[in-house]
Amino acid sequence: MKLIVINGPNLNLLGKREPDIYGNQDFDSYFKTLQSKYKDHSLEYFQSNHEGQLIDKLHAVGFDCDGILINAGAFTHTSLALADAVAAIPAQVVEVHISNVHQRESVRHFSYLSPVANGIVVGFGLKGYELAILSLIDG
Ligand code: DQA
Predict the structure, then answer these.
(1) pTM of whole model > 0.85?
(2) Domains of the chain and CATH, by start
(3) What confidence tier does 139 reach under pLDDT thresholds 50, 70, 90?
(4) Residues with a CB atom less than 6 Å from ligand 1
(5) What is the dihedral of CA 7, 94, 4, 10, to 10 degrees?
């Protein structure tokens, strides 16, 4: 399958950013282990801190890949435009959050993306990306 991970704002700082919440591992090293574990599949990675670039990427890949794992970071809670982009594309989309957003501030409990995502993985740390891959390749 052709899969892509799209990470939003501040997720470039994984490993350095609030390690008590997001852990100590940087995403690049985690992603390399995912790629080697799922080498029968094409697995790409894109990260941006900019809402428009995330929307452009969804448009660019959403019509010819099979699945998208999206962690939109704080845009999850604010961006109707990102939700519209997810709704516009035929690819399967899994919303991923490293932390359990429902145990955190109430502003993080609402997601614009959840109603338009095929599924949601929340609160399993970086392993959530792997769980999302498994849901796509098994499903
Ligand atoms: C996050 C949760 C969001 O509330 C937060 O803004 C993030 C990361 C997560 O992966 O747990 O940047 O999406």
Answers:
(1) yes
(2) 2-138 (3.40.50.9100)
(3) low
(4) 10, 71, 73-74, 76, 97-99, 101, 108
(5) 0
